């Protein structure tokens, strides 16, 4: 019986592996057409001033509506696009689309609205990255000061080139943020040496903020950021208590389901016009 069971387990394991492999291959192939077939879209999550509850900008988050699998998470397909190289074309599209959209909102009466765009390491390390962004922004008359690029600590693998790129971006006025801050191994060094503007504290640290919980780490990160004159943004705020603790500790900006999930452009426009549907905010 045990033997029969073992065999079944093996077969199950085997077919599960096969299924995953087939899915990966399908994604690899599908990526090539996703752009032409209009299967990609951007969602926007408000970035909020924690004290006033006002929307000061948004983060563009990529979605892929796959013809066979439905909505696929960027966590699944971005790493594959990095492997295949499709990230270059996709990344260009994301930047152009996000800036064009935000330019529309700026013209609608929100002139200081910022937009944050995620940039993968491979994209960031392209030779012509800076030039492409620069001409892209000029084409649509977009102020570089109102664009923020979010990169992760993985760019540290090429510390020298990355520092040069960050310097050049700074010179053009474009802002840069370290995303998922605190999850990499070289956080302190990054914070001190890299010419960045913002740190986004990873959701894992925000999750620690609960009544009777120990959230000394998050306070330490906020203080380090502020001492180095960086803007500090909290990711993944889900409840009032977290928002209150963050605001009290001078973390001034945040994003999370408490305020809004990432939404489509027309829904974000509603949020801009009507304000977030929440009646109380924390004034400290
Ligand atoms: P990220 O940049 O750290 O984005 C934050 C993720 O947390 C998003 O997941 C967002 O939907 C989710 N999130 C926001 N607030 C909350 C909350 O309160 N609770 C919970 N549970 N989740 C929250 P998403 O949209 O699935 O994106 C996952 C990751 O994929 C992003 O992490 C980013 O690293 C990457 N990504 C997304 N769009 C792009 C893109 O255009 N280019 C590149 N290179 N990467 C992208
Ligand atoms: Mg991000
Ligand atoms: Mg993040
Ligand atoms: Mg992330």
UniProtKB/TrEMBL annotation:
Stretch forming the signal peptide: none
UniProt keyword annotations, A-Z: Membrane, Transmembrane, Transmembrane helix
Location of the EAL domain: 24-276
Protein name per UniProt: EAL domain-containing protein
Protein's organism: Lederbergia graminis
């Amino acid at each position: 019986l045990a033997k029969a069971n073992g065999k079944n387990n093996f077969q199950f394991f085997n077919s599960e592996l096969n299924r995953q492999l087939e899915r990966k291959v399908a994604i690899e192939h599908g990526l090539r057409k996703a752009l032409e077939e209009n299967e990609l879209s951007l969602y926007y999550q408000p970035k909020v001033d924690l004290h006033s509850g006002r929307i000061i900008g948004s983060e563009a988050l990529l979605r892929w509506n796959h013809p066979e699998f439905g909505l696929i998470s960027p966590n699944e397909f971005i790493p594959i696009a990095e492997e295949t190289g499709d990230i270059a074309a996709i990344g260009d599209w994301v930047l152009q689309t996000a800036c064009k959209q935000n330019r529309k909102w700026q013209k609608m009466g929100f002139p200081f609205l910022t937009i944050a765009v995620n940039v993968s390491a491979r994209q960031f390390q392209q030779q012509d990255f800076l030039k492409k962004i620069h001409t892209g922004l000029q084409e649509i008359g977009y102020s570089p000061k109102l664009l923020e690029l979010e990169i992760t600590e993985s760019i540290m693998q090429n510390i020298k080139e990355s520092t040069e790129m960050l310097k050049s971006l700074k010179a053009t006025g474009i802002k840069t943020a370290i995303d998922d801050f605190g999850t990499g191994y070289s956080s302190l060094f990054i914070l001190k040496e890299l010419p960045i503007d913002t740190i986004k504290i990873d959701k894992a640290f925000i999750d620690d903020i609960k009544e009777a919980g120990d959230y000394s780490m998050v306070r330490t990160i906020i203080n380090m950021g502020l001492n180095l004159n960086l803007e500090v943004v909290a990711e993944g705020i889900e409840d009032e208590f977290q928002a209150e603790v963050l605001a009290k500790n001078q973390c001034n900006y945040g994003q999370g389901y408490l305020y809004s999930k990432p939404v489509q452009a027309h829904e974000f426009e509603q949020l801009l016009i009507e304000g977030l549907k929440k009646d109380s905010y924390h004034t400290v």
